[in-house]
Design goal:
Length: 430
């Protein structure tokens, strides 16, 4: 829920600005996920709604006890599959410039799984500093593109090597098993995450200070109240969502809608432009609600923390250390102040990690922020202050990084792109 950078304002202006955040209700505001037994447990995706993208049991199916306590990336399958993965991973790591002393490799005695983790200090979960370690060689990629106004631009985009480094860091577990037990699936996942950051970095939206969203109702979207995005008849979801990034209409939206657009377009565009597959695009669009494409793209969790439906495009990981972010992660900061959080739009802030210690900025008038700057900004709402006007002690900063159940503001969950199966029969999830 960033807004355009502004000079110091009166308390009246600040109050008006807080009200202007009405359309950006946090996407996990009313869910309290349960604690899982294993640290860094894989995202839980329980639900009964058929999904044309599901080719496997839910990702929350019990992990094999022999690697459930691992961190990093694990491939699980039969011995022949795992042996092929190990050979291909050795090639991939060499291709990306990893040296033998930088990545630890563990294999089960039976050959049923192989795991990879970063050879960092024990219990080190910080991914913000990875790009600042010259020995890892995690420099961003310089990417040239033409913006929606036809002007040539260049951006520094997080590298797939940095994305993999963050996944290998201790604190979380990423499991590729069954039909996903392949290095190709890992590379696809890295590329999708990179594409989410790419489109997040290209946004040039405006925050609607008057609480009125402005979007393309002439060609793609039905008029709406709030953020109930509904397609016009006959419009495909991929086309309507892409319009916010490549069309000529200047969208004015809040941070929840911004994250929905960025994350969803990052997935759809990967199969449309990066790894073109008309069949996969069709299956992705069929997995979405036919009229309201953002409905249930993330898991549905009730107030007691019980899963009701799997996310259509994204899984959720729980108990994530505050400083463990993989580029492309979608998280949330909750405003715990009972007074200011009652103001429309001030319940919290949606954020997407871009790599290099910085988070995606949806509104170009305001510079990208670190996590602590984002936390400080939301914390300042109760005082009517911007983050640059607020000084806090190291003790307060440490508290803000905790989950709200522990008195902090940063939810210990991350919404992450699903691993999309290739074998399930297409069914419309209702």
């Amino acid at each position: 829920m960033s807004i355009a950078s502004q000079p110091r304002r009166s308390w009246i202006a600040r109050f008006a600005c807080a009200l202007a955040l009405a359309l950006s209700a946090p996407h996990v505001a009313h869910s309290e996920p349960p604690q899982l037994a294993a640290a860094g447990a894989l995202a839980k995706t329980i639900g009964t709604r058929p999904n044309p993208l599901e080719g496997l049991p839910p990702a929350s199916a019990p992990l094999a006890a022999e690697f459930a306590a691992q961190s990093g990336v694990v491939f699980s399958g039969n011995a022949a599959e795992v042996a092929r993965v190990a050979a291909r991973m050795q090639q991939l790591l060499a291709q990306l410039g990893w040296t033998a002393d930088q990545v630890r490799v563990q294999k089960s005695p039976q050959g049923s799984w192989v795991g990879y983790s970063l050879n960092s200090a024990p219990h080190e979960t910080d991914t913000f500093q990875l790009a600042r370690q010259p020995r890892l060689g995690l420099a961003p990629e310089m990417v040239a593109y033409v913006d929606r106004h036809g002007a040539p631009q260049t951006m520094a985009l997080v590298s797939q090597k940095e994305i993999l480094a963050a996944m290998l860091q201790a604190g979380r577990l990423f499991v590729f098993r069954g039909e996903h037990c392949s290095v190709d699936k890992l590379q696809e996942h890295l590329a999708i995450r990179q594409n989410i950051v790419y489109w997040g970095s290209r946004t040039d939206w405006v925050f609607p200070e008057d609480k009125i969203y402005r979007f393309n109702t002439a060609d793609f979207w039905q008029p709406m109240t709030g953020d109930d995005w509904t397609l016009k008849p006959g419009v495909r979801a991929s086309q309507a969502i892409a319009d916010a990034f490549t069309g000529k209409f200047d969208y004015q939206i809040g941070c929840t809608s911004a994250c929905r657009f960025i994350a969803t377009h990052g997935v759809l565009d990967y199969y449309h432009r990066v790894q073109a597959s008309t069949a996969m695009i069709a299956r992705l669009e069929q997995a979405l609600d036919p009229q309201r494409p953002f409905v249930e793209i993330t898991p549905t969790v009730d107030r007691g923390g019980t899963y009701r439906k799997a996310g259509r495009l994204f899984d959720r990981q729980f108990n994530v250390p505050w400083n463990h972010w993989v580029p492309g992660d979608w998280g949330w900061i909750k405003n715990l102040d009972p007074k200011s959080s009652e103001e429309l739009g001030s319940e919290g802030c949606n954020i997407i990690y871009a790599g290099g210690g910085m988070f995606v900025n949806y509104y170009p008038e305001r510079p990208p922020k670190t996590l602590d700057e984002s936390l400080r900004r939301v914390y300042g709402w109760q005082f009517g202050l911007e983050e640059g006007e607020l000084a806090i002690t190291p003790e307060v900063a440490a508290r803000l990084r905790q989950d709200p159940r522990a008195g902090g503001m940063l939810r210990d969950v991350r919404d992450v792109p699903k691993l999309f199966g290739a074998s399930a029969a297409s069914q419309n999830g209702a």
